[in-house]
């Protein structure tokens, strides 16, 4: 069972909501759509579900064209950011409702409802009405309903966005576990890179209606194909600096340079942009070869275990993320260090020309 | 600007509260320093919003007093409290320009035009909004609108406190970074007393000098982010701060050793007098657990490994309980690593959920 | 955004299409038919071209009625909209009194139009009406059957009495949708009552005000029953509004051709003005608050 999008687009009037997308989602896979608000996540989901018809292109189920088939005639479940339940029905009846529509026998319904309620830790709340529940319980009810439906395609549009931080953290762990077993295709939209990483599976990064990259989550994270993908899939944001390649050296300014090794060696001389993640910026000189930059501290943020150091390098604002509590004086000049193995190089068009050496190894 | 004193404060939504559980906010005494940045952190229903409403003047507490400086404001309405507030959803005056929005609180108080102009431009510069000053507020994005709300709070120099009620809820993650650092910078520059209510630990910890963790109507700990991380006063704080939270495991304590299922875990301090406690637990953060294949560790079985980019979260089974272990980005985790080592200096001991101070061994 | 691609749905619309055809399109075409023909009875019709339109458009009588109609609608809007807003601001936001006020406000809207006319017709009579008699007792010479100004005041006050509630209820609904945070923020910013109204309530009421103005404009422009019952268009022609005039031509004089032409012109005027109102107000909404 696969869901395939073939050059699917969505336009309305002169506005393009989705630029041509081609992707294949496999049975039992968890697929994250990652992008900021209005990047096209919801639109793409609606196209997958059949709630909207693509302006061009085809949607295939197991190779069969279902482009014009209504959502009612596909086996699709959807969970939204708002907690959507039937307010007049008890939790039990809410969870049972999709099966009752399909005329499943009462014994099976009872078994499945109890099973799903158990997984979602709702067992003791089955007699309550949704409005008597907390937000987390309401959303778990909606999730349980999607689960028992036995849908082939389950779409979740930022399902945890309205929940408390800690609850979100717990459900984020539970959701992949629960849905992994059902064998459906999962699509999960989120604005948070951290959430995509925690969920694992595959990630498609979206930016202004374009899917910029699609692949296994760690691969997209470590080998972003473009600067845009790197930006979308980075929280805190990736740090960038203009570099030049001359001969066999990569020049960073300030007298800093590194050997243009590996795939960099073959690049023509010219201007490029280098990028590195905040957690690879060090405040102490590491052993071995390192790049050294002088920056001015703008703000430090302490999370207890870690410190974010926001610092200005020329016109650019950089972020360093280090373990422990680092109290740095605001406005002071400090040295930061970056190992060449952590540096990505992008062309002037934004396409990746050389992935960081560590990423290829990881 | 003023320090804020909460004296003998408590609140119950129903009249004549009888038992402790009737109180949405249990009795508390706190003094918050002038010019400090405080965060009220806790899950929904913990009483943080009740406390905020008492400070802002929406609610009159059932008992106790609120003082701004030396002035008792317990019964004063919001507008007489000289505070500013930023709400969960941006509140802007749609028909006004950004400039007029920022100038509004000053003009209403009859500030001279040239002073208004100087202050508004100052704030706009700090917020990076100088180039949109002439625009109508209506057409702006959510984060820009929230910046205006923020600016309107900052524009008056004489406010006693600025209150923030989950101000980043509707803001995209990558914009949260910008707003948070701007808020930090504004606090440094203008030195207002700030109180920030949130359920998001990252926001609370990065914003505040002092974080007030609330749970079930009560302040369970008030401390610096480092305190909360390293020495959580209550197991709830350990669980709530950090992601994943602290591993809390029932244990027997004997002097400077903890025992779990007969396995000894050395502690860095000496504990006594725990016999009377109903439950005794040890807490250790995932950051201070190391997965190893050395024989000196305790037996664990790895269940899952989550690669979250800059680190790996290992979910492991430890005598039938789940423990979380954090491993570095590059770490390779194999089946042979079936032992876990606790960092003795980072283990806290809890009796009936509250931390116990040990003696130096 | 299309939600479904099933063309069967069109069959569902068919009954409505038929209903609209028989109730609106067919009668309208009959009127158009009349407007270009002449008859001398016996169901015999002659082609008259645009003769009736010319006649009606150049007639002094229509011009006068049109001017009266504009004045009437303008006065109605100028009174009812501000008054409705003011009333809506006075209704308590929640609680028993809120419901009580809403029921009270809804009462005039429930009375049939000809009854409203009759009530005021009697109310204003000098001999038996409470208002008329009181005025007379106070020594004020009030008589709407003889004095044109008095007749006008009577029908305007009657309309305000009847329809201000509608505006107030709509505005109240608009006010209810404003989150409390706005009021709290305004208080914190030191805004007074007027500024709260000017910068929060009015911009947030914009949408419902548009609906209120449109409804009241169209209704008042087409008003017939109430003034007809009270004054019958008099004294003289002083309160003969467009619709009253139309009925006089069509039924009083049985001039079907001119009446049909009149109807079409009337219809076009309303359509045009409603469009103008709508465009102006929505554009204003874009520039200002919503």
TrEMBL record, chain A:
Q: Where are the transmembrane segments?
A: none
**Superkingdom, natural source:** Bacteria
Q: Please give the Pfam families that the UniProt record associates with this protein.
A: ABC_tran, TOBE_2
Q: Please list the residue ranges annotated as the ABC transporter domain.
A: 3-233
Q: Which GO terms describe its molecular function?
A: ABC-type ferric iron transporter activity; ATP binding; ATP hydrolysis activity
Q: Which UniProt keywords apply?
A: ATP-binding, Cell membrane, Membrane, Nucleotide-binding, Translocase, Transport
Q: Which GO terms describe its cellular component?
A: ATP-binding cassette (ABC) transporter complex, substrate-binding subunit-containing
Family assignment from sequence similarity:
Belongs to the ABC transporter superfamily.
Q: What is this protein called?
A: Glycerol transport system ATP-binding protein
Could you tell me which species this protein originates from?
A: Novispirillum itersonii (Aquaspirillum itersonii)
TrEMBL record, chain B:
Transmembrane residues, as ranges? Answer: none
Q: Does Nucleotide-binding appear among the keywords? A: yes
Q: Which residues form the ABC transporter domain?
A: 4-241
Alphabetical keyword list: ATP-binding, Cell membrane, Membrane, Nucleotide-binding, Transport
Q: Which GO terms describe its molecular function?
A: ABC-type ferric iron transporter activity; ATP binding; ATP hydrolysis activity
Pfam families noted in UniProt: ABC_tran (PF00005), OB_MalK (PF17912)
UniProt xrefs under InterPro entries: AAA+_ATPase, ABC_transporter-like_ATP-bd, ABC_transpr_FbpC, ABC_transpr_MalK/UgpC-like, Mo/tungstate-bd_C_term_dom, NA-bd_OB-fold, OB_MalK-like, P-loop_NTPase
Per the record, its GO cellular-component terms are: ATP-binding cassette (ABC) transporter complex, substrate-binding subunit-containing
Q: Which CDD domains match?
A: ABC_Carb_Solutes_like
Stored PANTHER family = ABC TRANSPORTER ATP-BINDING PROTEIN, MALTODEXTRIN IMPORT ATP-BINDING PROTEIN MSMX
Similarity annotation: Belongs to the ABC transporter superfamily.
Query: Which protein are we looking at?
Result: Glycerol transport system ATP-binding protein
State the organism of origin. Novispirillum itersonii
From TrEMBL, chain C:
Record localization: Cell membrane
> Which InterPro entries does the record cross-reference, listed alphabetically?
MetI-like, MetI-like_sf, Sugar_ABC_transporter
Any transmembrane segments, and where?
12-36, 70-89, 95-116, 151-175, 208-225, 259-280
- The answer, when asked if Endoplasmic reticulum is one of the entry's keywords, is no
Instruction: Please give the Gene3D superfamilies that the UniProt record associates with this protein.
Output: MetI-like (1.10.3720.10)
Q: What is this entry's stated membrane topology?
A: Multi-pass membrane protein
Q: What is its main location?
A: membrane
User: What keywords sit in the KW lines?
Assistant: Membrane, Transmembrane, Transmembrane helix, Transport
Q: Where is the ABC transmembrane type-1 domain?
A: 66-277
Cellular compartments per GO CC: plasma membrane
Q: Which domain of life is it from?
A: Bacteria
* A Gene Ontology biological process term: transmembrane transport
- Per its UniProt record, what Pfam families does this chain match? BPD_transp_1 (PF00528)
Question: What is the similarity comment for this entry?
Answer: Belongs to the binding-protein-dependent transport system permease family.
Q: What is this protein called?
A: Glycerol transport system permease protein
Origin organism of this chain? Novispirillum itersonii (Aquaspirillum itersonii)
């Amino acid at each position: 069972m696969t869901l395939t999008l073939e050059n699917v687009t969505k336009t309305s009037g002169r506005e393009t909501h989705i630029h041509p997308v081609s992707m294949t989602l496999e049975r039992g896979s968890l697929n994250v759509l990652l992008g900021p608000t209005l990047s096209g996540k919801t639109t793409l989901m609606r196209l997958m579900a059949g709630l909207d018809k693509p302006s061009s292109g085809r949607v295939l189920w197991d190779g069969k064209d279902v482009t014009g088939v209504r959502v009612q005639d596909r086996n699709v479940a959807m969970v939204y950011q708002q907690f959507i339940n039937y307010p007049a029905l008890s939790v039990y009846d809410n969870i049972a409702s999709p099966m009752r529509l399909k005329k499943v026998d009462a014994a099976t319904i009872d078994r499945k409802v109890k099973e799903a309620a158990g997984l979602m830790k709702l067992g003791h709340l089955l007699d309550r009405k949704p409005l008597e529940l907390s937000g987390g319980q309401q959303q778990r009810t909606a999730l349980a309903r999607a689960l028992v439906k036995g849908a082939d395609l389950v779409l979740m549009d930022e399902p945890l966005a309205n929940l408390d931080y800690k609850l979100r953290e717990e459900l984020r762990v539970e959701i992949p576990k629960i849905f992994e077993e059902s064998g459906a295709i999962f699509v999960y939209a989120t604005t948070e890179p951290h959430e995509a990483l925690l969920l694992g599976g595959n990630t498609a990064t979206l930016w202004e209606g374009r899917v910029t990259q699609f692949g296994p989550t760690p691969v997209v994270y470590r080998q972003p194909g473009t600067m845009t993908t790197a930006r979308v899939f980075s929280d805190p944001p990736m740090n960038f600096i203009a570099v030049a390649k001359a001969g066999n050296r990569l020049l960073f300014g300030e007298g800093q340079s590194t050997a243009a090794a590996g795939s960099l060696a073959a690049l023509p001389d010219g201007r490029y942009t280098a990028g590195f993640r905040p957690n690879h910026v060090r405040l102490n000189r590491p052993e071995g070869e390192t790049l050294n930059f002088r920056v001015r501290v703008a703000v430090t943020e302490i999370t207890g275990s870690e410190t974010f150091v926001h610092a200005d390098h020329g016109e650019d604002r950089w972020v360093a993320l280090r373990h422990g509590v680092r109290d740095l004086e605001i406005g002071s000049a400090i040295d930061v260090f970056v190992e060449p193995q952590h540096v990505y190089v992008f062309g002037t068009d934004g396409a990746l020309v050389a992935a960081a050496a560590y990423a290829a190894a990881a | 600007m003023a320090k804020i004193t909460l004296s003998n404060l408590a609140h119950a939504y129903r009249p004549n509260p009888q038992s402790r559980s009737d109180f949405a906010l249990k009795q508390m005494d706190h003094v918050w320093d002038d010019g400090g940045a405080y965060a009220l952190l806790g899950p929904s229903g913990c009483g943080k919003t009740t406390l905020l409403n008492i400070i802002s003047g929406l609610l009159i507490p059932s008992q106790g007093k609120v003082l701004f400086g030396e002035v008792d404001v317990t019964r004063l309405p919001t507008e007489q409290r000289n505070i500013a507030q930023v709400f969960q959803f941006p509140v802007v005056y749609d028909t006004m320009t950004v400039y007029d929005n920022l100038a509004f609180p000053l003009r209403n108080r009859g500030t001279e035009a040239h002073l208004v102009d100087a202050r508004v431009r100052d704030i706009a510069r700090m917020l990076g909004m100088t180039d949109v000053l002439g625009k109508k507020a209506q057409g702006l994005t959510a984060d820009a609108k929230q910046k205006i709300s923020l600016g309107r709070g900052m524009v008056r120099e004489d406010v006693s406190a600025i209150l923030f009620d989950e101000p980043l809820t509707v803001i995209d993650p990558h914009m949260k970074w910008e707003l948070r650092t701007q808020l930090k910078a504004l606090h440094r520059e203008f030195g207002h007393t700030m109180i920030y209510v949130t359920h998001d630990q990252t926001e609370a910890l990065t914003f505040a000098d002092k974080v007030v963790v609330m749970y079930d109507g009560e302040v369970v700990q008030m401390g610096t982010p480092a305190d909360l991380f390293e020495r959580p006063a209550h197991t709830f704080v350990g669980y709530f701060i950090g992601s994943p939270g602290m591993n809390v495991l029932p244990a027997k304590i004997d002097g400077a050793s903890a025992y779990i299922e007969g396995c000894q875990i050395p502690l860095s301090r000496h504990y006594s007098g725990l016999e009377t406690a109903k439950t005794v637990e040890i807490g250790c953060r995932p950051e201070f657990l190391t997965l190893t294949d050395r024989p000196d560790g305790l037996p664990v079985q790895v269940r899952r490994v989550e690669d979250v980019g800059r680190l790996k979260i290992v979910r492991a089974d430890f005598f039938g309980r789940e423990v979380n272990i954090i491993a570095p980005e590059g770490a390779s985790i194999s089946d042979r690593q079936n032992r876990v080592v606790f960092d003795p200096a980072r283990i806290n001991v809890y009796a009936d959920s509250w931390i116990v101070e040990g003696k130096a061994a | 955004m299309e939600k479904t691609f099933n063309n069967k749905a069109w069959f569902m619309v068919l009954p409505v299409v038929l209903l609209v055809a028989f109730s609106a399109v067919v009668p309208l075409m009959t009127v158009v038919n009349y407007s270009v023909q002449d008859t001398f009875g016996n169901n015999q019709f002659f082609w008259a071209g645009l003769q009736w339109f010319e006649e009606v458009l150049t007639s002094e009588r229509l011009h006068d009625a049109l001017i009266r109609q504009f004045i009437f609608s303008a006065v109605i809007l100028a009174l009812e909209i501000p008054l409705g807003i003011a009333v809506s601001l006075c209704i308590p936001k929640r609680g028993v009194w809120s419901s009580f006020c809403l029921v009270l406000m809804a009462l005039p809207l429930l009375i049939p139009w000809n009854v409203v006319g009759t009530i005021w017709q009697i109310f204003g009579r000098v001999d038996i009406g409470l208002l008329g008699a009181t005025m007379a007792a106070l020594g004020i010479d009030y008589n709407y059957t003889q004095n044109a100004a008095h007749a006008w005041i009577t029908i305007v006050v009657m309309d305000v009495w009847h329809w201000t509630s509608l505006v107030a209820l709509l505005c109240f609904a608009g006010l209810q949708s404003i989150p409390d945070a706005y009021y709290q923020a305004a208080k914190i910013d030191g805004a007074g009552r007027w500024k709260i109204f000017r910068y929060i309530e009015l911009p947030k009421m914009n949408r419902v005000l548009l609906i209120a103005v449109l409804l009241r404009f169209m209704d008042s422009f087409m008003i017939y029953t109430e003034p007809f019952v009270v004054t019958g268009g008099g004294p003289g022609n002083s309160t003969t509004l467009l619709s009253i005039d139309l009925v006089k031509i069509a039924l009083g004089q049985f001039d079907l051709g001119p009446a049909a032409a009149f109807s079409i012109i009337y219809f076009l005027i309303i359509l045009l003005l409603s469009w103008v109102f709508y465009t102006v107000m929505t554009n204003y909404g874009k520039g200002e608050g919503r």
